[in-house]
Design a protein that fits this description.
It is found in: Cytoplasm. This protein is mainly alpha-helical. The protein contains 13 helices and five strands. The strands form two sheets. A three-stranded parallel beta sheet has the order 1-2-3. Strands 4-5 form a two-stranded parallel ribbon. The longest helix has 30 residues. 40% of the residues are buried. The protein binds tryptophanyl-5'AMP. Tryptophanyl-5'AMP binds next to β1, α1 and α7.
Length: 332
């Protein structure tokens, strides 16, 4: 089977519906056709300030949510980035072939460093994309399923792989980003032109997988729409409604056209009420299963350790090849 790699940051308390639709659902579908490797990127999380105890807990919680949502740790390799030392080791080598200007052009770095202020932004944040490239390249992944916001990082990964190969000889597989157009971007419910994100300014626009059903329903019912009342998919004129229709369509397995027909002559209120039910029904069982898995952290840690060992077998072989190609003296 061809290899696939993707990663996600451990998030405070819960994943949001954008992670679920943009990443998780795709991963779940792809894991049968690919030899899938999924990584919880705790080293990436360190690029912004973290509370140590919370980071540890969130890493477990994130793993539990992925398993609860259908990533099978027996079929796929689901592991924690810091458990496989080859990741930061390869990142170092990639840092040495990345241009300073090239890394400075990463839009996510520009956004995040602007938010942190020039003293708050760290060298770690700057080096983030090269660690991500290392994640992908260690596994000879051909496919990298991500949301639209990660496209530029995957492009950089391709450039670095090509550059390394031409300087040191064929070593890396050049990966392709897999981005599903319709679901590549889920927007904030209160600000439907901004990407839904863990770091959103207001809580009420973000639907968390682990929210209580009543909280989820309330957030969806109070999502921003526009003055009209016609339920129609129009990203420019009706970004709020378009976002709700996207979420609805994916979770209910109906096309946008079917939904538009279903809500002809009915208002936004009905759409939101029904969508709230669909979301609650989707996340209810995932939430319950997550809590169950978290009841036995030792077992969860054992599964992650086993998967990390499997990942390390692949990653260490790639790293050894890289060290050899660039001329590092082997330790005998
Ligand atoms: P992260 O943790 O921010 O997000 C995980 C995945 O969720 C997608 N996503 C969204 N998709 C649609 N709509 C949204 N509103 C939305 N918000 C997030 C992201 O695109 C991502 O696919 N740098 C990565 C993690 C990473 C990685 C990797 C990914 C590290 N190494 C190697 C792929 C391969 C990140 O911060 O994702």
């Amino acid at each position: 089977k061809p290899r696939l790699f993707s990663g996600m940051q451990p998030s405070a308390n819960s994943l949001q519906i954008g992670n679920y639709i943009g990443a998780l659902l795709q991963w779940k579908d792809l894991q049968t056709d690919y030899d899938a490797v999924f990584c919880i990127v705790d080293l990436h999380a360190l690029t912004v300030p973290q509370d140590p105890a919370l980071l540890r807990e969130n890493t477990r919680r994130t793993a539990a949510q992925y398993i609860a949502a259908g990533i099978d740790p027996a079929e796929s390799t689901l592991f924690v980035q810091s458990h496989v030392a080859a990741h930061p080791e390869l990142a170092w080598v990639l840092n040495t072939i990345t241009g300073f200007g090239e890394a400075s052009r990463m839009t996510q770095f520009k956004d995040k460093s602007a938010r942190q202020g020039s003293d708050g932004a760290t060298v770690g944040l700057f080096a983030y994309p090269m660690l991500m490239a290392a994640d992908i390249l260690l596994y000879d992944a051909v496919a990298v399923p991500v949301g639209d916001d990660q496209r530029q990082h995957v492009e950089l990964t391709r450039d670095l792989a090509g550059r390394f190969n031409s300087r040191f000889g064929e070593t890396f597989v050049v990966p392709e980003a897999v981005i599903l157009k319709e679901t590549a971007r889920i927007y904030d419910l209160q600000e439907p032109t901004a990407k839904m994100s863990k770091s959103a300014s207001s809580e009420s626009g973000v639907v968390w997988m682990m929210d209580e059903p009543s909280v989820t329903a309330k957030k969806i019912r109070s999502a921003v729409t526009d003055d009209g009342r016609e339920v129609r998919f129009d990203r420019g004129e009706k970004p709020g409604v378009a976002n709700l229709l996207t979420i609805y369509s994916v979770l209910a397995g109906k096309t946008i056209a079917e939904l538009e027909a279903e809500y002809t002559g009915r208002g936004y209120g009905d759409l939101k009420k029904d969508l709230a039910e669909v979301v609650v029904e989707t996340f209810g069982p995932i939430r319950a299963r997550t809590l169950e898995l978290l009841d036995d952290p030792a077992e969860l840690d054992r599964v992650l350790a086993g998967n990390a060992a499997r990942a390390a077998t692949i990653a260490d072989a790639t790293l050894a090849k890289v060290y050899d190609r660039v001329g590092l003296l082997p330790r005998v």
